[in-house]
Design goal:
Blueprint (H helix, E strand, L loop, with lengths): L18 E9 L2 H16 L5 E6 L3 E4 L16 E3 L6 E4 L3 E7 L9 H17 L6 E3 L2 E7 L13 E12 L2 E9 L19 E2 L11 H16 L2 E3 L2
Parallel strand pairs: 1-2, 1-12, 3-4, 9-11
Antiparallel strand pairs: 2-6, 3-5, 6-10, 7-8, 8-9, 9-10
Helix pairs in contact: 2-3
């Protein structure tokens, strides 16, 4: 078990049931994923058990509530879906692990900023278990890795690439949407958008960083990291 830091802990109140941990088979159509999330979130708001749902999608772009049309560089490349989560344009596709996190913050901490920081911490601990240093940035949501082998940025700072994106929504203090971690996606697919509206930095993946990991291995490490921040999980089919 990975370490637990109180700073990022989002453990539930005493007596809560473990979070259901579900992994989808194959490529999940985005509309079907949204429909499932809506149904699960409604049930959780009525007292149902919380859920983390891991999926992979076919290639697609999603537009968050802050998306700027000019950031959709190639609008005809892949299907584009408007979504109610926060943030701008993101890419989803094969080789990227998407974790839809549906938790009732009334059973934890009713603090959205703390929840976002906790999700970032889950990614950082997952990467740490594979000897990759992920970092958060105060002015940029998501998780970043430094790339000293790349040319310096125009301001003289070290190049950085984004390895994980976050976008969330809350309804009655129940969270949905969540995070995406690049394991082995086709990085060229990101060129059809300005990811999250940030053009000064690149995008990377675990395989791009030289780690030939399997999705199943990443899932195990992701679950361990999640439990160290949010508490116990139980397998859910």
């Amino acid at each position: 078990m990975l370490r637990t830091d109180l700073q990022f802990s989002m453990f539930p109140i005493e007596g809560s049931k473990p979070v259901r941990w579900r992994i989808a088979d194959g490529l999940m159509p985005y509309p079907e994923a949204v429909e499932t999330m809506e149904r699960e979130v409604a049930a959780i708001a009525e007292g149902g058990d919380e859920l983390v749902w891991l999926v992979e999608h076919p290639p697609l772009y999603t537009a968050g509530t802050s998306a700027d049309a000019k950031d959709l560089v190639q609008p005809d490349r892949f299907p584009v879906f408007a979504t109610g989560r926060g943030g701008e344009y993101t890419y989803h596709g094969p080789g990227q692990r998407v974790a839809y996190v549906m938790l009732d913050l009334k059973r934890r901490r009713q603090d959205v900023r703390a929840f976002v920081a906790a999700l970032e911490e889950v990614v950082i601990r997952t990467l740490e278990s594979m000897n990759v240093r992920g970092e958060r940035r105060e002015d940029r949501v998501g998780v970043w890795v430094r790339r000293p082998e790349k040319p310096l940025l125009p301001d003289g700072s070290m190049s950085e690439d984004k390895i994980a994106a976050l976008g969330i929504r809350l309804r009655k203090w129940v969270t949905f949407h969540g995070l995406s971690l690049n394991v082995e996606p086709d990085l060229d697919h990101f060129t059809g958008i300005v990811p999250c509206g940030i053009s000064a930095y690149g995008v990377t993946s675990l395989v791009d960083l030289g780690l030939p990991v399997m999705m199943t291995d990443v899932d195990i490490r992701l679950r361990e990291a999640f439990e160290s921040v949010f508490g116990e999980t139980v397998h859910d089919r």
